[in-house]
Design goal:
single chain; 684 residues; alpha/beta; OB fold (Dihydrolipoamide Acetyltransferase, E2P); Rossmann fold; 6-stranded parallel β-sheet; globular; binds adenosine-5'-diphosphate; binds magnesium ion
Length: 684
């Protein structure tokens, strides 16, 4: 059986060299590859419709008799139509095939066939164009495979069928124990493989899918747990002193319980002989910077250096400013490294890092440059992790010898997914906001209310508060920056015709140089600007407590998570804050998104909703996370299965982390195979 699965596909009846080459293009080399090339959808040929009752505009399957042989009509070079008439005994229907000589030649007058396609009604007569035609015994639920030129779904289905016929009983060793299958009501692997290709009913298909999805997620979880275990190498950076209490004494506020817990988690890691690898996840405003600062403080007091990398210059400069402030009462100096600095400034930072006289540096990607060396790098922090690739994180760590790593993310991820996405990280959650925060009131209005919105802003600005207007996003990617600039400038100009013209209005957009942006942000923070018109560059991290109103134009263009991030720029001080979403879009999806925003301020709830509305593609679809691509599981639809698989994988991992029990050989092989894709065999 194992041996049969490993055979090249030429072994399957009907596969010669030419066809094998086509299969190779689909990544199918062996019999096993072929059997795990799962259909990506199905056509339901099991429910037959009469011609007259066929749903208009939808595909369906009709059983009918060919009343004559197809007649050829040569329309022009390269276009030949074949027309014939069929009847289901009650109504007639005209069938047209385009250039399909092969299908036309197979039709015999007087015979019954199944026609799968869309029935259309034109001038009181029924028509079907280019249906898929099959003999009457060819009904049921038919698999549709990913195709490639020269290899259509029918050919693939025939080959899969021939491959399945090579096996009489078991196809592949069972990877899930009987006990586990019983608990979760899962069918056997071999049955599932047969049924996923050629299901006898919808129920059979459901059962097959459930089994295979469970298995895939279970295997993924096991691999991730292994990766996590393995990343625990030795490190020389073992702290002997926890200086958190000393750090707290420097702060003008006391830490929240959540901040204290996250710091304690980190300090346990830092005092072990394994490198910390921890994600601190917290909603906007939950105080991640203070946590990072506290962790840096202990690391530095123990004689090591720390580096923090942020995705944008604005954010790096702001972290630099807030860390400098937090460490005001201590002798810790905070260095900065961003590309817009002068050569001399950079050189000073580089030297001080290399000789160890500077113990803390904040920067952008500039930190990754070869010229940056550390005397004793003990801790690497990356902020807003979703903007860094795994490789970039690793590049910074490589500047030390297995330093501790802390990742901060303001994208709250539903707990169920956190383990999955940050598979190799431990997670601490800041699920508590600093006291005294006023909830942000959020309203969604149409563009017809814009005048009123401006008057409303006026009310706030007139009593000394500040505000943001996030101007329309432009979708065109290529000229994005140019358009962004135009949109922002145009908006800025239009505001001069409104009651808001009397205020000091600033403009911030992506085309500005780092130093220019910085100047605008500084001026805004210093209240030299009352109202900041901006594109989404303010999205991350910007912290101005006196800003209490935010207007988001074209709110429909933003994803939930992004709107939430933007909104987090207000509500950071003692004043009650408001966010107004302006949009005319009326699709259900948009309405639902805007409604979610008006109903909750909780980033985790919003993330769950985002996941439901958009699917996990954003989190999961890209390879940035270095995770394997899943063949069947859809995390949006299969969230519940994911949870079950997670629990089971963890239980198994705790019993037998190396999967060394001989009965686990099949699942162990699957983990190795899944992770081979990402160059990690997951089992080392
Ligand atoms: P995040 O990065 O998580 O969005 P920040 O670290 O920027 O949040 O913190 C937001 C604001 O809250 C900052 O002004 C910070 O000084 C303040 N802050 C942080 N922790 C506390 C606390 N425990 N009590 C009061 N204010 C806090
Ligand atoms: Mg932050």
């Amino acid at each position: 059986m194992q041996e049969l699965l490993a055979r090249p596909i030429q072994f399957v009846k009907g596969v010669g060299e030419k066809r094998a080459a086509l299969f190779h293009r689909l990544g199918v080399h062996t019999v096993h590859d072929l059997l795990t090339l799962f259909p990506h959808r199905y056509e339901d040929w099991s429910q037959l419709c009469s011609i007259a009752s066929a749903p208009l505009g939808e595909t369906c399957c009709v059983r009918a008799t060919a009343l004559g042989k197809p007649v050829e009509h040569r329309i022009r070079k390269g276009l030949t139509l074949y027309k014939f008439t069929v009847s289901d005994g009650i109504s007639g229907m005209h069938v047209t095939l385009f250039n399909n000589k092969y299908a036309a030649a197979s039709i015999r007058a007087g015979e019954d066939y199944l026609f799968f396609g869309t029935v259309e009604q034109r001038f009181h007569r029924f028509e079907m164009s280019s249906p898929t035609i099959a003999p009457v015994q060819g009904g049921g639920i038919r698999p549709i495979y990913p195709q490639t030129a020269g290899l259509n779904t029918a050919a693939i289905a025939r080959t899969v069928k021939a491959a399945l016929a090579l096996f009489d009983g078991e196809i592949e060793a069972e990877a899930l124990s009987e006990d586990l299958r019983r608990r979760h009501d899962l069918i056997g692997r071999s049955d599932a493989i047969r049924a996923i290709h050629f299901p006898s009913s919808h129920r059979a298909l459901e059962a097959a899918r459930k089994r295979l999805v469970f298995e895939e997620l279970f295997v993924l979880q096991l691999g991730l747990l292994r990766l996590k275990g393995r990343s625990r190498r030795q490190t020389a950076v073992t702290l002997t002193r926890d200086c958190t209490a000393e750090f707290e004494a420097l702060l003008p506020f006391s830490l929240t319980g959540a901040q204290r817990r996250a710091m304690a988690d980190c300090l346990i890691d830092l005092q072990s002989d394994r490198p910390m690898n921890r994600l601190v996840q917290g909603d906007v405003g939950s105080g991640k910077t203070a946590v990072a600062a506290g962790v840096c403080y202990s690391v530095i007091r123990n004689g090591w250096q720390a580096a923090m990398m942020a995705p944008t210059e604005i954010l790096a400069r702001q972290h630099h400013a807030s860390l400098t402030k937090l460490f005001e009462g201590s002798d810790i100096r905070v260095g900065l490294l961003v590309s817009s600095m002068t050569a001399a400034e950079k050189r000073a930072t580089l030297c001080a890092l290399a000789d160890g006289s500077l113990s803390l540096v904040v920067g952008t990607h500039a930190l990754l440059s070869d010229r940056v060396t550390f005397a004793a790098l003990g801790l690497v922090i990356t902020d807003e992790q979703h903007r860094f690739g795994v490789g970039q994180r690793a590049a910074l760590s490589a500047k030390g010898r297995d330093p501790h790593r802390l990742v901060m993310s303001a994208t709250p991820i539903p707990r169920t997914l956190a383990l999955m996405i940050y598979g190799d990280l431990d997670v601490s959650v800041l699920d508590e906001l600093p006291p005294g925060r006023q909830p942000i009131e959020t309203y969604a209005v149409g563009t017809d209310k814009r005048e009123r919105v401006y008057r409303y802003i006026d009310k706030f600005l007139s009593v000394g508060r500040q505000g943001y207007i996030v101007c329309p996003l432009i979708e065109d990617d290529e000229e994005n920056e140019q358009n962004e600039l135009m949109a922002a400038e145009e908006y800025y100009a239009r505001l001069q015709q409104t009651p808001l013209a009397k205020y000091r209005i600033g403009l911030l957009h992506g085309r500005m140089k780092g130093a220019q942006k910085d100047e605008v942000m500084r001026a805004f923070a210093a209240h030299e600007i009352d109202l900041l018109v901006s594109t989404t560059v303010i999205e991350v991290g910007v912290d101005v407590p006196n800003a209490v109103i935010m207007v988001i134009e074209n709110a429909e263009r933003f994803g939930l998570a992004q709107m939430h991030q933007l909104r987090g720029r207000v509500g950071r001080g003692k004043h009650a804050s408001t966010c107004i979403l302006i949009s005319d879009a009326r699709t259900d999806e948009t309405r639902r998104r805007l409604k979610v925003m008006t109903q909750t301020n909780d980033g985790f709830v919003i993330a769950e909703e985002d996941l439901k509305l958009r699917g996990p593609g954003d989190f999961f679809g890209n390879r940035q996370h270095g995770l394997p691509v899943l063949a069947l599981a859809d995390l949006k639809a299969d969230l519940q299965v994911l949870q079950q698989a997670q629990t089971e994988a963890l239980a198994l991992y705790e019993r037998d982390p190396f999967l060394s029990d001989p009965t686990l050989a099949p699942v162990k092989a699957m983990v190795a195979r899944l992770f081979a894709q990402v160059g990690e065999d997951g089992m080392n």
